[in-house]
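dude i think i finally got it to work??
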Amino acid sequence: MKAVVTMAGEGTRMLPATRGLRKEMLPLFYRGRQGNPTLAPVAHLVVRTLHAAGVDDLTVIVSPDQEAVVRYFQPDDAFIARHLHHPERLVETLALHHLLSEMEFHWVTQRAPKGFGDALLRARDRIGREPFVLHAADAVLWEPVPGRLPRAMDALRRKEGARVVLLVRRVPEPRNYGVVEGTWAGRIDGARYLRVARMEEKPERPRSSWAATAVYAFAPEIFDALESEARRRPSELEVTSAISRLIQEGEKVFAVVLAPKEGQWLSVGSPEGYLRAVRRTYALARRVPPRTA
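look at this
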C-alpha cells in the first residue's frame, strides 16, 4: 500500500520552538517494547501507524530546510556501533531500523507554503494512478490496535468504490475544522461510517459537529480535483476544496467515525494541543494493555 505523509508546514503557532525544531519532530510518548513510556517524534509515531496499516511505500512531503527529518528516517549503523555497550538503550532505535528496512521512502520538496492541498499535489508523480492513504505528521492517531482505522478506511474505499474516505470525530467547536455533513451508511471492521453529502472548511455556521482529521484514503482522482482547484485558488490550496468538488460532481465520499473506543486524535499544532497530547500519550503509554488468550 502507498501513503503520503506531509511534513512541510512552518508551525508558526509553535514559535519560537519550531524555528529550530519542526513541529512534526516534537516528542510524544508511546509504550515501548520493554513496557515503559518511551519518547519519539510525532512523525515517527505516524510512520509506525502507517506501517502497521500495511504501508510499504511512503512519499514524504518536506520543506527545503528539513535535512534533520530526512536523517532521522535513515538507518545509521555507525550510531548503533558506537552504543553497543548499552544494548538496553538501543531497543527502540533497532526497532525503528527494522521498520525502515520494510518501507521504501521517497522525499519530495514543497518549495513554498501554499497549503495542505498543494503539499499533497507534490506527490502526484510518485503516486501515479494508484490509491493511497494520506496522513499529516503534526498529529498522532492513537489506536488500541495500531493501523486498524487507516486499513479499514482503505477497505471501505474499495468496498464502496469511493473516491475519498475521511476520518471524522465529534468536536465541541466545529467552526475551527473542516466539517462534514452526511448520513449513516454502515460499518467497516466494527467502525461506523457516513455517506458524505457536504464538506466545508471552517464554516461560520457549521451544519454538523463532525470534524475531519488529517487522515484520508484517496483514489488517484483526488489529484485531478486538486489541479482544478489550484487553477481557481493559486495562493493557497486546501484538500477540503478538492473533496467538495468531487462531492459536487456526484462522486462517492465516505467518512469513518473515530469513536472514543476506536482511538484518539492528538494534534501538536498549537501549544495547548501539544500539552494535551503529551499528557494523554504519557497516560496511554503507562496503561497496561489487556491480556489476550
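The first strand starts at residue 2 and ends at 7.
im so relieved honestly
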